[in-house]
Please model this.
Amino acid sequence: MTRPLTVALVAGGALLARRALRRRIGASPLWPMPALEEPVSGRRRENRRPSSHRVLVAERTEPAEGVVRLRLEGADLPPWEPGAHIDVVLPSGAVRQYSLCGDPDDRGAYTIATRVLEGGRGGSRELRERLHEGTEMEIRGPRNRFPLVAAPSYLFVAGGIGITPLLPMVRAAERAGADWRLMYCGRSRASMPFLDELEQAGADGGRVTVVAEDESGPPGLAFLGGLPAETAVYCCGPEGLMDAVSGALGEARAPHLERFTASAAVPGGAFALELRRSGRVLTVPADRSVLSVVRDELPNVSYSCTQGFCGTCRQRVLEGEIDHRDELLTDAEREDSMLICVSRCRGGRLVLDL
Amino acid sequence: MSNTQPVTVASEHTALKARKVAFAWEDTPLHWVPGDPFTTHTINVLHLLLPAGERWFVHVYKQVLPHIRDDRLREDVIGFIGQEAVHSQAHDDVLPHLRALGLDPTPYTAQVDWFFEKLLGDRTLPPGKARDWWLKERVALIAAIEHYTAFLGDWVLGAEELDRQGADPVMLDLLRWHGAEEVEHRSVAFDLFMHVDGGYRRRVRTWAAAFSALAFLWQRGTRFFMANDPTLLDRRASFRDFHDGGRRGVLPSTPAMLRSIPRYLSRTYHPSQEGSTAQALAYLASSPGANGLPHPANGGR
Model:
């Protein structure tokens, strides 16, 4: 072969190779590497807990004795589903959670309602005394740990102000044409909000049973045992009512529960901690973190910031109700894991995959 | 023996703690070094590599913890892990902002994710020798990479030309907070490598792998950003641009980078010989993002 021909062939080959390479890199920046099927990077922010919003108290009413209802208007409020709640940052900086009880289709405002508890932690009193029409405040959320699952029929059991998360559920069930019933318990009719609206909604076929203790005594729950298996049971109210509903349903099925206050064990109190893989049961006293108790047994458990933001100490939770106190995990991650440096247990027992 | 052992500068050691940070990206423009897309995108490659890369550091180090038999080193590694985890999160939060500005990083980051999660991830190796080897190899890789993160951190802390060019204050704060923590913890990865293995041949081998990988990932990253920037007409990126940026002081200079190579390969090398912990701590004490302060030029958050 002559020399010029060789040069031309090599140059042509190099040119073709460069073009081919450029085309591949154009389509795949790190060619020849493949991509991870479900990319991880860049997804954190969108999965994170919803950010905070400024809202204005547009309307304040008292739908029943000792109950305050606020309509909070804001721009670009995220959509929500029945059962959702928001964090309200009170003027003192205290944060309280309230279920949304308005209409999910009303995109310009959230509605919350609370009973003012004189003996409570002070959140509801502060809400009554310091939040007036025209007050601006911060909210976070919404989040939903009490979602309405699809079912052919529903039984809702509300106790007093526990009606708030159930109210949008009732409306949704009615709209979906589901077979629903509501048992609404309270001390007296005057103290029970939203009675008119509910009795209207359930007018056909007596879907709503109102049990006011001053008229008819405590609610009879024995009928729960005979409910068909496909009926989804939702309950929100005082601890005693939720225990009674769980008990009446029997061992085999569990109701969907929403707790307004932490269960019998005081948050921050002591609880039992089982490390399933190590086969050990420990006690976490009120003044120590899960992490510090675990470290006594397993010195190599990983952790770092001890303040709930770096995420290094995240562990899988097998059983128990988690009291999340971190600022990092997404709702999906909160389902079955926790940051053991700050988060605790709402019930009496927690089981970790350790 | 004196010329074959790392020489530690003890005064450079400091206790490590992860810092909680917050950066508001709403006002950061696409070309955050004004009028200089090449510099912007060359530095932006950090946001492509670090979320996956530093997540991988944490993943590897969690596995090493049980092998550490020195209490102070264990404390250092624990602090290091938290700092790296927060770095990864902070850079990850920039990516949605780039997407919002019309520059979707996902094609690149999905491949970097594969690189760290699969290629450098846990292999299905039998417990014992093979698994130990792979863990040591990755610990050595991290030590080599940390040599460069400390180099870059030290550079960005002193890169006053970026301020003169009017670079976005939030982005500069992210880079300098991160850079300062890299300088602050620069000895940990090397100390850990020396503790679990420390073999010189492994140091050289993993340095070569890390350096080649970084050069490959970086030039592809810069090219990727330049080619996909919706506002650019001239989409070329060359090594010459990089060299020029180094001369102007908006990027690390090529000679300084070349000089750092023999230093890492020296048998007496120890990271505490380079950079200044005092300078890093001074920046960290005043960083708006690390102290919950508003960024002045953004009029608060």
Summary: Residues 271-352 of chain A form a domain with the Ubiquitin-like (UB roll) fold (CATH 3.10.20.30). The CA atoms of residues 317 and 352 of chain A lie 5 Å apart. The interface with chain B takes residues 25-26, 28-30, 33-36, 39-46, 300, 302-305, 307, 309-312, 328 of chain A (CB under 8 Å). The first strand of chain A starts at residue 52 and ends at 64.
